Amino acid sequence: MQGSSGSPDIDAPKDREMSSAKIVIAGGFGVGKTTSVEAISEIPAIRTESWMTAAAAQIDRLDPGIDKVTTTVAMDFGRVTIDDSLVLYLFGTPGQPRFWPMWDDLVRGAVGALVLVDTNHLENSFAAVNYFENDADVPWIVCVNLFHGVQTHELSEVREALTLPPHVPLIAADIRDPRNVAHALLAVVNHATERATALAGTGVG
Amino acid sequence: MARRPGLHWKVRPYMTARGRTSSRSPLLIHTLVSTGNRYDPVLAASLTPASRSLYEQARRMCSVAELSASCGLPLGLTRLLIGDLLKIGQLVVHDARPSQDLVLLERLRAGLLRLT
């Protein structure tokens, strides 16, 4: 089969110049962030710790109740090779709200974000939904994690319970399954594409 | 002197960073960094243990986050030390495409579709 001649030319990676992109996976504690990263990552999910230190220069933004200069934060990330010159990194956010200064850092430059929710513990993901709705400027979607592959609530009920704006896509996936995770990430990319296309359409320069 | 891959923080990171607390150009956590197919053993020997560890790890291109993890260094310090090595031309940054670039998004779409 030949490539359609009408489609825009994708930059030929002749120079083998590698580049990277990032999608953030957010959500409350125990919602499956690490599981989803592990499901699709081609390397074992890497856990890094002790990110917030004096050298991070963000200490002044920490909760004043925290008097430690160095705070240990655990975060998982994984990697997916997209093509011969593009790597996609997946970063799971640390769940605790007190690490929000780090969320800004994680989210900066992201293609988009996938917010996971557990319908049995919706409240665990309220903070993440709030964050992306109010404090971040990246395309984001919400994904109901089908624990054991079972959908226990209608998506419309979930949308209402989360008071999710109509423009934010809501999907369901069993994030233990790599193909399901790929679908969910695809939904993030599609949403980002729609937004970028809309912005390109309005921003006539 | 024995050097272990994981550093033990008996000194505060800002001591290693010689008192500085921020780097001039913020590197994103997924920015790819490498030594650019070059390796200078004399330079490596002259570096502090933390910088040397970063320089060695970057012989294989990887992200700032991976360097932070593999060298056992906090992210802020990792960025700072990478910044120093960039300044003296010993590391190369492989610039990430703008995250809302339509060509990038299309490539991601094609790549992810293959995994579904």
TrEMBL record, chain A:
The keyword Nucleotide-binding applies. It comes from the Bacteria. Pfam families: ATP_bind_1. Keywords: GTP-binding, Hydrolase, Nucleotide-binding. InterPro entries: Gliding_Motility_GTPase, Gpn, P-loop_NTPase. The keyword GTP-binding applies. One of its GO terms (molecular function) is hydrolase activity. Belongs to the GPN-loop GTPase family. PANTHER family: ATP/GTP-BINDING PROTEIN-RELATED, GLIDING MOTILITY PROTEIN MGLA. This is ATP/GTP-binding protein. It comes from Actinoplanes siamensis.
TrEMBL record, chain B:
PANTHER family: DUF742 DOMAIN-CONTAINING PROTEIN (PTHR36221:SF1). It comes from the Bacteria. This is DUF742 domain-containing protein. Pfam families: DUF742 (PF05331). InterPro entries: DUF742 (IPR007995).
